[in-house]
Amino acid sequence: MHNFGFALDGAWQVLLAGLALGAGLPILFALGIRSLAWGAGEAAVNTSGVTAPGPRRPAGTALGYLLFAVVVLGVILGITFIVAGGFGYKMSFENIYPTFIAK
């Protein structure tokens, strides 16, 4: 019965990692696109045509760029993890920043 508990514990860890890395980064990217659109102001459509965009929202633009930075950081860390494994190193997060340790 203990093995079943260990298997469920491992399955939850894999599920959380898959959600964070598999679906999390595309969700953050989509939220960044939406945030940039919100920051640019919304154009209104009336009977005479499309009017000029509304007031710009700098907070939306800043949030969009912040979300893009998080996505780019995640992609760079993923590529670095793969390349480090190919060269015989492993990536350690014992410090605040990732370091490489020989296997």
Architecture blueprint of SSEs:
Layout: H1 2-40, E1 45-46, E2 49-50, H2 58-86, E3 89-92, E4 99-102
Antiparallel strand pairs: 1-2, 3-4
Helix pairs in contact: 1-2
In short:
This protein has 103 residues and is mainly α.
Specify Rg, calculated over alpha carbons.
Answer: 21 Å
Low-confidence stretches: none
Largest sheet: 2 strands, antiparallel
Beta percentage is: 5-15%
Note the run of SSEs as H and E: HEEHEE
Strands, count: 4
**Helical region count?**
2
Name the strands of the widest sheet in spatial order. Answer: 1-2
Q: Which outline best applies?
A: elongated
Tell me the distance between the termini.
Answer: 34 Å
Average predicted confidence as pLDDT: 85
Structural class: mainly alpha
The oligomeric state is single chain
Level of helix content?
55-70%
Key terms for this structure?
two-stranded antiparallel sheet, elongated, 103 residues, mainly alpha, 4 strands
